[in-house]
Amino acid sequence: MPFAAILAGAIGFVAWSPVVVPATALVVRATLVDASPPATLAPTATAAYTLRFRNTGLVVWQRGTAKQVTLGVRGDDPGYASAGIAAGWATPTRIVSTIEPVVLPGAIGTFTFTVRAPKTPGTYRVPVGLVVDGLSWLDADPFTLVVTSDLGYHGQLVEQSPSPMLEPGETSGPQTVRIRNTGAKPWVRGVAGQQLNLGLVGDDRSQSALAMGWPSFDRVAMQTEPRVAPGGVATFVFRVRAPTTAGTYPLRLRAVVDGVTWLEDEEIVTLVKVGWLGATAAKNPVDRAAFAFAASGNPAKLARGASTTVTATFTTVSTIGNAIVGVEIYAPGAASVVFQKWFDKQSFSPGVSRSFAVPWTVSSASAVGSYRVSLSAYSSNFKTSYGGSPSATAIDVTDPASPTPPPATIAPPGPSATPVTATPSPAPTPVPPTFTLGASVTSPSVAPGDVVNVNAVVTSASAANALVDIEVWAAGGAAPSYQVWFDGQTFAAGQQRAYPATWPVPADAPTGAYRVSVGVYAPAWGTEYAWLDSGATFTVASAATPSPTPTPTTAPTPPPATPTPAPTAAPQPTFVLRATVSPASIAAGGTTSITASFTAAVTSTAIVSIYVYAPDGTTELNQQYFDNQSFVAGETKTYTVTWQAPSTAAAGTYVVKLGAFPPGWRPQNYSWTDLAATFAVTAAAPTTPTFDESAQVAPASLAPGGTVTITASFTASIASTAIVSIYVFAPDATTQLNQQWLDNQVFAAGQTRTYAVTWTAPATAAGGTYIVKLGTFPAGWSGYHYSWTDRAATFSVNAPAATATPVPTAAPTPVPTTAPTPVPTTGPTPTPTSAPVPTPVPTTPAPTTPPTFSGLHVQGNRLVNASAQTVVLRGVNRMGLEYECVQGGGLFGGVPVDLASVNAMKSWHINVVRLPLNEHCWLGIEGSPSGATYQQGVASYVNLLTANGIYVMVDLHWSAPPGQSASGQQSMPNTSYSANFWKSVATSFKGNPMVLFDLFNEPIPNNNANDSTDSAAMRSWSCWRDGGAGGNCDATQSSGTSSSMSGSQVVGMQALVDAVRSTGATNVIVLGGIQWANTLWSSSTRNLLTYLPVDPLGQLAAAVHAYDNTWCRDTACYDREVAPIAAQLPVIFGEFGNAAGDTNMLNSLMNWADARSIGYAAWTWNVGDSSGFGQMKLLTSYSGTPNQYGQVVRGHITAIQ
Questions:
Q1: Closest Cα partner for 606 from 577, 582, 580, 578?
Q2: Which whole number is the average pLDDT over 291-310?
Q3: CA angle (816 as vertex; 813, 818 as ends), nearest 5
Q4: What are the φ/ψ torsions at residue 75 (nearest 5 degrees)?
Q5: Facing residues of 576 across strands?
Q6: Which ranges in the chain are annotated with CATH 2.60.40.1930?
Q7: pLDDT tens profile 466-500
Q8: Contact criterion met (CB below 8 Å) for 1152 and 1117
Q9: Helices (H), 899-931
Q10: Using CA atoms, how far apart are residues 182 and 848, in angstroms rounded to an integer?
Q11: 625/412 Cα distance (integer angstroms)
């Protein structure tokens, strides 16, 4: 029985008292693995949230039992649920249990739930933890769930006109206030609830006597731009009429979205100074001797984007109470006020100085130059001026130390545009980070009331902090139907991050097309960094009618399509537009500078825009523009921008076009020049080195047991660092006998380096001509080779020719095949022969560092992890789950599936296990175990594997239509159960991206019909993809090892893909080809690519099975039928083996696959006899001891990864 020590300090002794503590409390522990980023949502909007904890205790977490672990609200405070945060939680203080039915010690439990933003805006912090109800809270990492409810409307003052000085009754010129949109929602003129107005603080109509042409007595102006997206700038222009009495009249202004909310109070004050000049100046009550003023800036010189503190000091000679003192900062040239801060109701004693510290952050878009700091003081409500110091100090703003390119590229706004309408200064701005954006949805069509799962993917080219925004827009919508954003997101250079979002489609949602937009901004909705207007599309359709095909939203409106401006009614400004480019020629990836001049015919205000077009003259590549540029008649203004050609830019002549437009991008243009300048882009200089390779051998002939010296020379085309590798091959040209390499060899351009190595022929070496091969590889053996020479030299071993085919070594290094241009392995390792050990290699590098174990997704023709590292799956099949449950053997037939057996697998360096499943046992139709018990057993084993760094590929192996037992391999999946099987499996594992879904083990459509005729191939591939519904399945399908089924009972791969995606699962889907999964390519028109099912996520891979008795079993066939698929999709040899013991076939397959980053899984991780070949079982014991067959596989995999 456990005991607890009780310290009786007051008595001075320690007493031991038996206290019963449940044993489970001592062994139920957890540590936080990761969590979704904090979400910011509009009030009442919802978002999915996931927390993952590792079971670091000693007992299993088991859902639905006394050992269930639940995520709860610490302190059992129901207030968070009352605030509206709980959305579908189990109780107000219990959120959710694990997705996994069972979480073994060391495995990871996933808690996925929904949060709702409360109606009242604000940031809510919910303390959560893990609890076993009835026992205790777990000893786990504390975590606070952060939910921010935000209306999405925020603004920040950019600049305002200086306060006007007027004579009594005089009307002012235009007063301008410019406010940056620092919120999530666009400001749209003319749309109620979205238009931004400039109003009087508190709707104080007492100031309305100053009104001159205002929209109303408490609204001085509305935004002039049609649309201002987040990060953009809105302009407000108004006039005031001076009262007839001299004095100072404060106009306190604040931005407001009427009917929604006031924005932040930026202390925008325009002081209308009446009678300060001219004949009435003497009437203005001013006591200029009341204060002495002083100011300083710390620092006094800073770069754009940095912060300074202005210390303003006010000193009086008399007692003054209820005063207003203020700090104003003027832009260079005093053209505008960029910052002001007022302190009201201040009291001063004679001779006592009071200082006010005022922080000011310089916008990154601000102009460089000297900013003037002005101090002033007034009596209450600005009635009397106590004087001021218009130049109390100066703050110098400079360019940042890093190079600064021109303003960010921003497309002009239009009816469907969403880019930022920023107004950069003509001076260049700092280099913004760049991002690549993508998005996907789980279903192309949903009904009102359904849920749309969105996954946005953001990749940063450089280290950056950013805000990630996800929006769902209806076609023609004036505002997003759904929006969620994640502020303060940190990216490493090259890092890719995924952001899931869930939109519950309202029951009254309009039907039609919707698009998913993704944006990246500087933190707190600063500068827009990237925008993807239509990353994915879907439709909302009535359940009673078929969903229409989603129509992508039109891209943002481009500049005028017509090169010559359309005539407009006079008078209209016109411009003379010119441009020069320097340098006039750049290589791809280089940067050129464009200097554009705009000369106005009349006084006007315009947007000036500079474009770069591709050599075709129609494809716009870049646009940079400057808003609200003021010209006097005849004035010429010059703007310089830079453009960097992409490294992939095509060679040719690129075109610079110029345009001048009315403010607000009104439909017409003032002037347009279709060919202002041109420049050339040439092909980029080569960045991948090549090598000339040669070798000599001395002596040219030797006896068995003799030694040769190989002198190899490598000449680099450009400066580079490489691995140089020297091989010796047997006379058959496929069996590698020796490899020696030197890592990190540094070459100058054109440099030749020579390496001498020796090799001792085994005493048993067969006579014949031996071959020296050479290769150069990138550092780290990173997936490809620089150069390869398949026959650099030869030498002879003088011995009788061998009569038996040489058997490859137990641990061969993957090398190129015998094809004309072989591709070497990604990561070769020296391989000794089974004869006496050869001379040690000059350098023995450590094994190649494997990629990080994390979720997989498809990128081009590769599988990559969350860090975008290529992952090549190499491992084994693990049979048993498909047949034991229907043959009386239980789940696995009593063989070990514990951590020790997993560690045995890891000792082989495998990184994937393929698990065959039984359809009926999973669904509970038949078998023992079946249903939930079978599912739980499978899930536990899958979780054990993935928790220990091994990917899992689950496949539908044994199945059957109604009335039959799932006791063998069917020809094809069936319409009755197979889609439901995959919906259930996908639901179970959709939270684990380390699991791949292999939809059907070995499809055999149309009775394994010979696909040599186009008609037969068409029918087989159509049946494979479309099932019986496509009309091309034979009436009877009887080629499986189990019972036959009718053609109408066949369900195709497209339906199974749809079934998986309907669950929201984003896991990679694997598709085996026809003819027992051995054929991926029947012809150029009949193959897996041309019949590829549609996956809205683009996460499909192909599988091929190859055995000694299959049609496609050698490298010639792989080159012909597998390579074309592998050029487009990831490919995996889902099964391979050789019952005849032909190790050449096995090694050739693995070598061929290694050279192309293609994965493979041997059949099967089970115990067989000492040979293993006939049974195709790899083991003699489950401790990982290989038999002869297993030695070939294990030796190869341990050498390559």
A1: 577
A2: 91
A3: 125
A4: 80, -5
A5: 599
A6: 575-682
A7: 888 888 888 877 678 888 888 888 888 888 888 88
A8: no
A9: 899-906, 919-923
A10: 47
A11: 9
| 860-878: b (≥16 Cβ within 10 Å) or e | ebbbbbbeebbbbbbbbbb
Lowest mean pLDDT among 97-111, 140-154, 204-218: 204-218
Using left for φ > 0, alpha for ψ between -120 and 50, and beta otherwise, residue 936 falls in alpha
pLDDT at residue 1150 tops 50: yes
**In this structure, what is the dihedral angle of CA atoms 936, 942, 948, 949, given to the nearest 10 degrees?**
-150
What confidence tier does 267 reach under pLDDT thresholds 50, 70, 90? Answer: confident
Q: Is the pLDDT of residue 55 over 50?
A: yes
* Topology at the third CATH level for domain 30-149: Immunoglobulin-like (2.60.40)
**Residue 285 DSSP SS3:** coil
CA 171 to chain centre: 55
Which residue shows structure tokens 């097309």?
A: 513
Name the CATH superfamily housing domain 857-1199.
Answer: Glycosidases (3.20.20.80)
Are 341 and 361 in contact, with CB atoms under 8 Å apart?
no
Secondary structure, 3-state, 172-189: CCCEEEEEEECCCCCEEC
Q: 453 near 1096, Cβ under 8 Å?
A: no
- 368 DSSP assignment: P
Segment holding 935, helix H or strand E: helix 932-947
Query: 842: exposed, middle or buried (C-beta count within 10 Å: 0-12, 13-18, 19+)?
Result: middle
Of 655, 501, 683, 653, residue with least CA distance to 587: 683
Count CB-CB contacts under 10 A for residue 971. Answer: 30
Return the closest-CA partner of residue 1193 out of 905, 816, 900: 905
Q: Which amino acid is at 1015?
A: S
pLDDT digit string, tens, across residues 939-970: 989 988 988 899 999 999 999 998 899 999 99
What is the structure's pLDDT at 565? 32
Backbone angles phi, psi at 504, to 5 degrees: -75, 110
DSSP structural state of residue 850: P
Regarding pTM above 0.90, the answer is: no
Structure tokens at 145: 């769930």
What is the spatial distance between Cα 176 and Cα 161, in angstroms, rounded to a whole number? Answer: 5
For residues 651-671, average pLDDT = 80
435-538 falls under which CATH superfamily?
Answer: abc- transporter (atp binding component) like domain (2.70.50.60)
CA distance 187 to 222: 11
Query: In the chain, which segments carry CATH 2.60.40.10?
Result: 30-149, 152-277
Domain 691-797: what homologous superfamily? abc- transporter (atp binding component) like domain (2.70.50.60)
Query: Which CATH number is 575-682 given?
Result: 2.60.40.1930
- DSSP 8-state assignment for residue 1114: S
Q: Is the dihedral of CA 715, 718, 724, 725 positive or negative?
A: negative
Report yes or no: 480 and 471 within 8 Å, Cβ to Cβ.
yes
Q: How far apart are CA 784 and CA 1154, in angstroms?
A: 10
- pLDDT for 723-762, tens place per residue? 888 989 888 887 888 888 887 888 888 889 999 888 888 8
Cβ–Cβ < 8 Å for 993, 110: no
Residues of the chain with CATH 2.70.50.60: 286-399, 435-538, 691-797
Tell me, what amino acid is at 1154? D
The CATH class for the domain spanning 152-277 reads mainly beta
CATH 2.70.50.60: does it fit domain 286-399? yes
Nearest one of 33, 35, 52, 45 to 115, comparing CA atoms: 45
The reported pLDDT for the residue numbered 668 is 66
1122 and 1104 in contact (C-beta within 8 Å)? yes
Residue, of 313 and 677, whose pLDDT is higher: 313
Joined tokens for residue 390: 């218009």
Contact 1166, 1178 (CB under 8 A): yes
